Amino acid sequence: MIKEVNNKLSNYLSNARKFIDQSEIKIYQDYSKNSLKSGLWDDKKTELYNELFSYRFLYHLRNFTQHNGTMPLNSVSKKIIPTIFGEQKVLEIKVIRDSLLNTSFNWNSGIKKEIEDMPDSFDITGYLIEHKVCLQKLYNKIIEIIAIEIATSFKDYIELLNSFSIRGYPYLFNFEDEESQKDPNNYKNMNKLPLKEIFKYLEKISETNVIKLNYRNQNN
What we know:
Elements: H1 2-31, H2 36-51, H3 53-68, E1 73-83, E2 86-96, H4 97-101, H5 109-116, E3 121-123, H6 125-163, E4 171-173, E5 190-192, H7 195-207
Antiparallel strand pairs: 1-2, 2-3, 4-5
Helix pairs in contact: 1-2, 1-3, 2-3, 2-6, 3-6
């Protein structure tokens, strides 16, 4: 069982880091590294790292497993814990403290001191559960960034339509140049803006309760 748990734990840590790294790359690409939206992402990561040992520990533990090739598990056992929904079976995964420290891996000095203060063998199950909550918070921050971008752009668009007293659904026309606008045939190929779809998308974002969007569907 220890080998199986070891493999799954290593895969979890690897996938968690991939989620964080790939999300960050995408955010920096879309909004630039020094933008306010990228700052929202950076601030959330910094907050989680500074406030939660579970996030710090598992962040560096992934590097340890990559360097060391395996996790120094002491024991893996099943236990029953009471919850508000009744009894629940969980794994108790214990790690050998000195096996983390007595290797050639170069731990971050701060996290190394925290590991040194741990018992000889300590359970990491709670840290894994808390770490999953951290990943959810990072995902929520991504949704918030996207929602802000969409809602702001859509608000500006609606205000533009209202400034011209436009009612109904506007259409888009593609012209090669100013002269082509004079040809009636060029008005045959038009694209209706997907306003209903945009409102539905905004509503789905609102349902996540990650961010409160202030908009009104004027076409209902």
